[in-house]
Hints:
This protein is α+β, with helices and mostly antiparallel strands. It is built from three helices and five strands, in the order βαββαββα. The chain has a five-stranded antiparallel sheet with strand order 2-3-1-4-5.
Amino acid sequence: MDSSEPIQLDLGISISDFTNEELDDATRELFKELKQHSEVESIRLGTAKAPEGTKAIDPVTAGAIALAVLPTMLPKVLDFLQSWSLQGKGRTIKFKGKLADQSVEFEGSFAEMEKMVALLEQKGKKGKKK
């Protein structure tokens, strides 16, 4: 994995028993917290196309955040997300992006995610040695 090229991740959060408005508030709070971390190269709230016939100016998808992070900083961002998910009951995070030149979609525990990221990083390093 090239350590100078940022990894693009699309995060999705969900919190059981939250309304769309509460999820939107939680998403924006997580966005603010992630934005303050120097490990994050770029970040934006996830957006969706407005349904045909509506006049939405800035449609934001509740629970969606897009960010870019350098591979060497990914563990710190994952640690932060793990801490965030443990702050309340029913919090889950899923993501999709490209790690070690492989498209990845993930939803599960952080222990499983850490194993997957480590495996992909190892595969990426082996692929570059060839």
